[in-house]
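Support request from a user on the community tier.

User writes: "When I paste my structure tokens into the form, the page sometimes reloads and wipes my input. The last time it worked, I copied everything first. Here is what I submitted, just in case something in the input itself triggers the reload:"
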């Protein structure tokens, strides 16, 4: 998933070039193809390390990347009129309200009871809410407002490296040549886009 998310800079640049024309399309298409090849190598050829439904999972993660790219592109236009803080917290409130009905579709905690949620589970949830969502998204929006969606998304290059490194370190997941080749293709694509 982290490697697929690493294609975000190229997806953002490609969509930005097509939708708001802040970068010429001819300047990003070759890099986009290289990066997409890297995503394909990791998500299709690397199925042995994947979960229960690798194709569905890879597709959903990539659709999330496209959605985030569109959010980044659209938010810059909105932030010309209102502050990044207002955009961030409005987005978070609307997303929370829209996700409340989804709680009823996941009956695991309801069936197991509230006592099945441990202290470390609550701490992990708190970290996700405060740092990985609210603070990270606020920092992202200030960055997008300051340098634009294409340039801000270049920092997404660190996502696959961090995801694979931390997965190996914390979860003990194996890192193979497929992942390394995929990362190299993604990074090469981003390098081409930035050139």
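"...and here is what came back when it finally went through:"
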């Amino acid at each position: 998933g982290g490697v697929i998310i690493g294609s975000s800079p190229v997806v953002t640049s490609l969509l930005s070039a097509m939708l708001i024309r802040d970068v010429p399309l001819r300047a990003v298409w070759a890099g986009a193809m290289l990066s997409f090849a890297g995503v394909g190598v990791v998500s299709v050829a690397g199925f042995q390390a994947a979960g229960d439904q690798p194709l569905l999972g890879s597709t959903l993660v990539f659709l999330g990347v496209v959605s985030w790219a569109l959010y980044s592109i659209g938010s810059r236009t909105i932030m010309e009129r209102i502050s990044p803080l207002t955009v961030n917290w409005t987005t978070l409130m609307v997303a929370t309200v829209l996700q409340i009905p989804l709680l009823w579709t996941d009956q695991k905690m309801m069936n197991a009871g509230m006592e099945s949620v441990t202290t470390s589970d609550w701490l992990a949830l708190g970290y996700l809410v405060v740092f990985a969502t609210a603070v990270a998204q606020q920092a992202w929006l200030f960055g997008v407002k300051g340098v634009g969606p294409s340039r801000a998304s270049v920092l997404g290059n660190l996502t696959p490296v961090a995801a694979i490194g931390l997965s190996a370190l914390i979860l003990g997941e194996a890192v193979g040549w497929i992942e390394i080749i995929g990362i190299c293709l993604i990074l090469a694509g981003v390098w081409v886009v930035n050139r």
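Agent notes: The reload is a front-end session timeout and is unrelated to the input. The radius of gyration is 18 Å. The chain has a mean pLDDT of 80. Escalated to web team.
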